[in-house]
């Protein structure tokens, strides 16, 4: 019997994914630079940029654009994984990540110090599920299979970043729960700083997952 060949990977999907992620990073940098006096990158989360103002206009559309750009880039990666016939579990988990980003883009977080609302809880829940789904998808993506996997050479890097992502989520979640219990006045964990660390780790994770798609173009 002939040995099964690995499925083809798509450089087009890789380029689209990279473009979406690059746009998200550019918007995030712009928000940090122009709203540094309004939103603390150490204590306040990325979601709180929706309550910033740029020249009298709300920064909410810019924050939504950042989330949607990252979601669309992730959808392109997802399409590339489907073409490469990766595990259905990986596709589903990455789809959950994309859906969570979309919810975060369209449903605002509750303002700091105000009563919790359904929309705010939905935003927080979607963010938590999304940030757990991405490293889970990355971990399963590098599971050893019968055919040679294009992601196998980066297995150690991808799984190391997935572990770092899980650890960052636990720190952010623990700090969030602690703040809910003790109140904002007793906030001890720098939620904003750790969330930005999580954002950076997940971007690195996504880029590492995209690289095999881009490598197909060079070949």
Automatic annotation (TrEMBL):
<keyword id="KW-0812">Transmembrane</keyword>
<feature type="transmembrane region" description="Helical">
    <location>
        <begin position="89"/>
        <end position="109"/>
    </location>
</feature>
<protein>
    <submittedName>
        <fullName>DUF998 domain-containing protein</fullName>
    </submittedName>
</protein>
<feature type="transmembrane region" description="Helical">
    <location>
        <begin position="193"/>
        <end position="214"/>
    </location>
</feature>
<keyword id="KW-0472">Membrane</keyword>
<dbReference type="InterPro" id="IPR009339">
    <property type="entry name" value="DUF998"/>
</dbReference>
<feature type="transmembrane region" description="Helical">
    <location>
        <begin position="161"/>
        <end position="181"/>
    </location>
</feature>
<dbReference type="Pfam" id="PF06197">
    <property type="entry name" value="DUF998"/>
</dbReference>
<keyword id="KW-1133">Transmembrane helix</keyword>
<feature type="transmembrane region" description="Helical">
    <location>
        <begin position="121"/>
        <end position="141"/>
    </location>
</feature>
<feature type="transmembrane region" description="Helical">
    <location>
        <begin position="60"/>
        <end position="82"/>
    </location>
</feature>
